[in-house]
Amino acid sequence: MRFRHFDNLRVFNIVAQHGSFSSAAEELHLTKGAISHKIRQLETELDFDLFKRLPRGISLTPKGQELLGATLSAFGGLEKKIEELRQSRSRTLTIGVTTYFASRWLSPRLMDFMRAHPDIRLRVQPMIDLHNLRAEGVDLAIRWGNGAWTDVRIEKLFACPAWPCGDATALSQVRDLGLAAAFEKFTLLRDRQDSTAWSQWFEAAGLPYMGQTDTLIIPDPNVRVQAVVDGQGVALNDALVETEIQAGTLHRLSDAELSDFGYYLAYPSDAMSNPDVGAFADWLKQVA
After folding, report:
1. How many CB atoms lie within 10 A of CB 235?
2. CATH pick for 6-88 out of 2.30.30.40, 1.10.443.10, 1.10.10.10, 3.40.630.30
3. Which CATH number does the domain 163-252 belong to among 3.40.190.10, 3.30.200.20, 3.40.50.300, 3.40.1190.20?
4. H/E element holding 154?
5. SS3 55
6. Two domains, one topology: 6-88 and 163-252
């Protein structure tokens, strides 16, 4: 006899995973009675019981357990194929970057990738916190730092050491007072409270770091650059502020630097199974 009620198999799948008619009814926005009816209808057509009705809940019968394994595999395969078909149609690749990196490095080069890969629709997602990539729907991110992250796979894109910069007044203080005395007076700008970049730089410069409390948290790197220009403090920056350096609105305050800092590709462990992610990563490494 030809099987007809495939929709009831989906209901069975959800009931079995929840172990409850009530929870399945809530997920499917149906009444508990409607769920019970669909399961009875399915059991009638199959001609065997799927669940044992117990005083406090339900449990799968041996045949029910076998059927659950089969439906999980079948529905999982269907969902995977549907997602593949959706991706092959749209092929949208989401890249997470700060506006700082996007405007100063990525944007001038991006048209080359788009011309080379007209079938890939690129979405550049401005981000400040480049963590929790899956939750943000990001396929690949570009982070600045020393690469010491364990939440994602990491590949170095290019070195870009960090060094302190300030406005003309800050530069004068360094020249007049000396590096150590000047930095005792500076407000240190940083991206987040738990950042250790400044303490690392003080160590690299051979200066004592007392855990300065005179700090200002500015997560957005472009805003942080402007804050330095406006004289609100000093910050660790990199070669991407060369325009401001040349214009004289920013000044490098010391030769000491965090030489292990740079830009890194960061992506979930399975990201490279998507050939579009691999294509973009390869292109980035070629142009870096």
Report:
1. 26
2. 1.10.10.10
3. 3.40.190.10
4. strand 153-159
5. coil
6. no
Contact indicator for 60, 50 with CB cutoff of 8 Å: yes
> CB within 8 A of 269, min separation 6: which ones?
152, 153
What is the strand order of the sheet 215-217 is part of? 215-217, 188-190, 234-237, 163-166, 251-252
Whole-number CA gyration radius for the chain: 28
User: Would you call 88 helix, strand, or coil by DSSP?
Assistant: helix
Most confident residue range from 12-26, 115-129, 198-212, 221-235:
221-235
- List, for residues 168-189, the tens digit of each pLDDT value: 999 999 999 999 999 999 999 9
Q: Looking at residue 76, what is its pLDDT?
A: 81
What pLDDT does residue 81 have?
A: 78
* Domain layout of the chain by residue ranges: 6-88, 91-158+262-287, 163-252
- Short-list 11, 32, 10, 12, CA closest to 21: 32
Residue type, 136: E
Q: What is the CATH number of domain 91-158+262-287?
A: 3.40.190.10
Q: Which residues pair with 281 in a beta bridge?
A: none
How many residues does the structure list for the chain?
Answer: 288
Rounded (10°) angle between helices 6-18 and 62-90: 110
Pairing of strands 262-267, 153-159: antiparallel
Q: Can you give the pLDDT at residue 197?
A: 94
